[in-house]
Specification:
This protein is of the alpha+beta class. It has a single domain, classed as Lipocalin, CATH 2.40.128. The chain is built from 4 helices and 10 strands. It has an 8-stranded antiparallel barrel with strand order 2-3-4-5-6-8-9-10. The protein is globular and about 45 Å long. The N terminus is likely disordered.
Length: 198
């Protein structure tokens, strides 16, 4: 699934206002795009055959770390995803870095998905979002509150994979299969976690 929009982060990083509880409100729109491009309809599905999620999980059972938008030169990912599967349920956990007032902030998103045919779907209203970094308790609380409100507005979303070369194209859609903006990214699976990059 998509982790963020790089251009928006560049805009955020360029902001010169102090990182206060007041300024974090004005910047929240820049943070909202880290969450899998889950907004209005956008790009179309790749012209490739869908790889059933159970096959993706089976083929990569020895490679538990999914790297989103892997960069070979830096050997790093924009996002890192792990999953725990129990029957038809997928307990999904995604990690990413977002710019902070002084140091990058670690973001962790946990969602419970259900396998549905070739894809997996879940209700973002039940997501859990945690930040770890240099933030005051007030900043942390406000950021979580605002982004969770954004997640709630997304409702049900689904993820699907399309095989491409040695990796996959990962696509995030709404329940009706419409692709979200920024919802198409590359995915590669590894035995060990790769470092995250902004």
């Amino acid at each position: 699934m998509n982790v963020r929009n790089r251009a928006m982060f560049a805009s955020y990083a360029a902001c010169q206002a102090p990182f206060t509880e007041k300024s974090i409100v004005t910047r929240i729109a820049l943070f909202s795009v880290i969450l899998a491009g889950l907004t209005a309809c956008g790009p179309t599905l790749p012209d490739l055959e869908v790889e059933p999620i159970r096959k993706v999980l089976s083929d990569n059972s020895a490679l538990p770390y999914e790297c989103v938008n892997y960069d070979l030169r830096s050997d790093s990912c924009e996002g890192l995803v792990t999953r725990r599967v129990k029957g038809d349920r997928i307990f999904y956990e995604a990690f990413a870095l977002v710019p902070g007032p002084s140091d990058p902030i670690n973001m962790r998103l946990k969602v419970d998905f259900q396998i549905e045919d070739t894809r997996y779907c879940g209700d973002m209203r039940n997501a859990d979002l945690v930040f770890d970094g240099t933030l005051t308790p007030g900043q942390r609380s406000l950021l979580q509150e605002l982004l969770l409100a954004q997640l709630i507005s997304y409702g049900d979303v689904c993820g699907a994979y399309f095989r491409e070369g040695e990796g996959y194209i990962s696509v995030t859609t709404d329940r009706n299969g419409r692709v979200m903006p920024q919802g198409v990214e590359t995915s590669h699976f590894f035995a060990r976690p790769k470092p995250l990059r902004l």
